[in-house]
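Side project, low priority. Logging it here so it doesn't get lost.
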Amino acid sequence: MADILIKNGRVICPDQGLDEVADLLITDGRIATIGAVREPAHEVIDAAGKIVCPGLIDMHVHLREPGDCDEETIATGSAAAIAGGFTTIVAMPNTDPPIDNPAAAEYVINKGRQANLANVLPAGAITLGREGTELTEMGLISLAGAAAFTDDGSWVTSAGLMAKALKYAKLTGLPIMSHCEDPSLAGNGVMNAGRAAAELGLAGTPVSAEETAIARDIILAHETGGRLHVTHVSTAGGVELIRRAKERGDNITADATPHHLTLTEEFARGYNTNARVNPPLRTKADVDALRAGIKDGTIDAIASDHAPHAPQEKACEFDKAAPGVVGLETTLSMLAAKLVGTDFLTWPELIAALTIRPARALGIAKGTLRPGADADIVVIDPAAEWIIDSARFVSRGRNCPFDGMSVVGRAEVVIAGGAIKDV
């Protein structure tokens, strides 16, 4: 494998507290040296004026394969990841059939290797068929290469079963990722319960549906000592529950999405089906609390919840539209524009939430530029101005809430496993 020298870039590695202009040498697919490098290399990349950081990690994506390959495949989703600067992604198990056995996990891994783009890690289902009644063979799925367990899209309603899941997952060393939404409280809600829903004549989902579920799972994690990851947190109360659990010393991590960090329930005005997401977009107070949670580390990671849908599943009445939006190709730029561009976060803080913090939540050896680490790297042009155009996405999904928005910052060069990938 040819050596690659990245010169003159602003090297940011939150794992090492590193933020300086330096050269970075890649040898045999691994980070060799950071500093003033004078050794010759087969390939030289001039990164003057650019940011050089670990490849981004998205711990929550939907690749739709096996099953709905018209919406996305592991190959097209991996290409979208690379286009967005992500070198590692975790595929959710709500496929058809679900990833609820070792063979299914191996299938995802093999398909990812065939694509030869981003590192694709499967999340195994907590329960068989994601039906919430019987646990999967977690040990075998873990040995097959799963990175986490989740019934994403469904909450495990049985507290007893969830306690068992946390105990068994603890033996594998993998986290349980919980989609915290109590269906008995959520009902048929399609957006946040509040004034906007009432004025639009749409059924609302109260914050209690999320917060009671988070509270229960935190109690169970505390009791069992299991690793709990609360995914796509959307409420201020949820952030506070997680903050208190962490202060108590519980083994809790969490993520929030770019759309929950940048949009409110008002985006649903006009019955915009790209505002139909689950959990729903909330209020400005919730957005502010999520941002504060990212800033102080209560919310560990930012994950896209990339969820492509066929056009007809969004071109319909709001309450009939499939929930979810695509985000792999827009996450970095939206956050750069809305959080770094407003001076709420620094570049190192944003990069931490997209690299080492999700890596630690998953327990994987990624998200760092330490010598000897895998050479998963992204070179970002922080000044690149562009307009999001979903028609030009690499992903098969076009259901993007940020379509047409002006943003800044873009992945310019992406290296995964020491190989330069097409962006």
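Brief comment: The chain has a mean pLDDT of 97.
Revisit when time allows.
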